[in-house]
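Project standup — Tuesday

K.O.: blocked on the structure for the chain from last sprint. Re-posting the sequence here as requested.
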Amino acid sequence: MFTLSGFVDLAAWRVHIRSMSFDISAILDEWDYQPGQVVVRKFKGLDGTEKIQLRVDLGVLQMNAEGRPDGKRPFGHESLLEHYMAQLKKHQTANGGDDETFELSAEDCAKIQQEAIQYHHRYICLFQLEDFDAVIRDTARNLEMLDFVEEYATSDDLSWSLQQFRPQVLMMRIRANGAVALQQNDFKVVIRLVEEGLDEIRSFYSEHERLDLLEQSGELHSLELWLREIEEKRPLSPREKLESDLDEAVRNEDYERAAKVRDALKNLKI
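H.V.: unblocked you, prediction finished:
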């Protein structure tokens, strides 16, 4: 039953809506777009949760810093992926643990991929913000999605439509893990992580019989370049420092100094 107070409240609400400004020109004017750069910031929203904004040429993209980036809960789950995983469990329960007849259709995979793009945008922003733990979290989530699709997509072609992006996700996970190690000046761990990551990406192309993509893989080229940069910046060990000094002394024909360096190398504990 309608009441007078109800009509008054509704009228007030309509006045409030009309008075609201949806124009974000002020935000765009004070925050310039920079072509070729990831311009991003993090802040606390009106609801008390952390938000991320990405400046793009035509405006601003905003996403939640945790949970599903758009804040939605598909079918009551944190993500659509979790919904499909719950469906798998129901299927297994109803079929005595068997999952062979569980399948992801082309429409299912398209929806899952669309959701994964949200996480992709967010971990790119998080990397720029140097929130590497969150990058590791989101890349792990997308890798879990790729494993799920690979297992249950109705065809190999359908699976490949998503799997082709695995090297990109792997690269971002490697960069984030490596960045965490670099913060601790642990160059040995960084080098190991990158080398293992390169092997993992090469193995991916090999297992999917796509060796033709190795030479044109931007992810491999990027990681190889980063590895060279790390090796150049890595502090030399005492042995490496002496060996470098020895090479320099020999080049300069400073044989007295070379002899001293050789003695130091002999006396250096392994």
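K.O.: great, moving the ticket to review. The longest strand covers residues 50-56. Residues 236-270 form one domain.
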